Here is the input.
Amino acid sequence: MKFKVYYYSRKGSNKYLAQRIASDLNCEMEEIRPRLNTFLFMMMNLNLGNRKLKSNPTNYDKVILCHPIFMGKLIVPLKKFIIQNTNQINALDFVTSCGSTFAKKDEKFGHNLVFQEVKRLLGSKCEKCQAFPIGLVLPKELQESPDAFMHNHLNNENFKGEILSLYQNFISEYLGSAEKLK
Ligand SMILES: Cc1cc2nc3c(=O)[nH]c(=O)nc-3n(C[C@H](O)[C@H](O)[C@H](O)COP(=O)(O)O)c2cc1C
Here is the structure.
């Protein structure tokens, strides 16, 4: 099974996740590059789309997309990536290092709302959505802290414990399916 990881990241957590997945699956990764990479404009939904990808998603059995969630919205570059590539994508899993916890996933700024939107745009091509809430790198009593995501970003130092177990379960499913298809 041929995988490709595409990612967008502002503070590095989703890049870290993308690098880890690409390394574990021994596959290529590529950055999504918005023409206007300004946070404020993105929040205002002002954009010029993304730059052309270096690779065509159609060449891969599955695309794994790593992208943050901001203000509970499906923002550019995620939205444009999906819209510009829907026909080229064979199958996609959406993965996010985000601020919202599992307990708050259905609230206004929760990751579940963005998952639903990705699934709505891609239909059955979106096979899985997985959140890696950044609070999981913290002790239990601090995980629900609203500003946990402002001060913490994934790296080799903090990617351990609960978040590492979650990741190991997540990645083992791919390794299992890759083995079966050999
Ligand atoms: C201004 C701002 C708004 C955010 N809004 C949300 C949100 O609505 N929901 C959420 O789950 N996380 C939210 N986050 C947390 C980011 O998704 C999280 O920090 C993510 O790991 C950033 O990814 P990056 O390091 O790859 O840029 C927000 C972060 C910032 C700075």
Summary: Strands lie at 3-7, 28-31, 62-66, 92-96, 126-131. Residues 3-180 form a domain with the Rossmann fold fold (CATH 3.40.50.360). The mean pLDDT is 94.
